[in-house]
Amino acid sequence: MSKDKIFSQARKEKRTLLTEIESKELLKEAGIPVVEAKLAKTKAEAMALSKKIGFPVALKIISPDVTHKSDIGGVKLGLKNAAQVGKAYSEILAAVKKHQRKAKILGVSVQKMVRPGVEVIIGMTKDPQFGPVLMFGLGGILVEVLKDVSFKIVPLAKRDAKEMIREIKGYPLLEGYRGQEPADIPYLEGLILKVSEFVEKTPGIKEDKRTRP
Questions:
Q1: Are residues 141 and 48 in the same domain?
Q2: Which secondary structure element, helix H or strand E, spans residue 199, and what is its range?
Q3: Which of 45, 1, 44 is nearest to 23 (CA)?
Q4: pTM given for the model
């Protein structure tokens, strides 16, 4: 689905928050690589898609009303067979209905598990004075607990991307701390520039305050 169609559908449904699948479609169209996610509306669809994608897979709730999926049991990781997928599908729906009874549930996303590594986050916020500002830091719970992030005003130059990565205190982890596999720093620099370009060309995009670190 194209960017225009995604935005049109969201406006039609009076939504300001895009689903994970819609967001990934936008990023993919902008040349930003993503782990492809497929929507499963039923348990049978989830099981069939998992077999097609290949195990292990992850399931995540798809709902315009659920932002923090993990907090309410809306995410299941490392599922190794169709039976586990079916069980996880039922558990996710039950958990979401328990915590957010009025949430509109569209289904679950099914996606391939990626190999473990150091997580990073690239985000965007809109400053009242400076406009779009890009954020980079360590991802997962680290961004919420440590808040080890750097910021640059959009648009970014190559020099800015290099500085962003090296400004965070956790940079040694990306270099390969204590024998760990180092991250592909030039690739990260390029990714930051692609996100900057996407933000610059898509002025209608803004952050959801509920997901802010």
A1: no
A2: helix 185-201
A3: 1
A4: 0.85
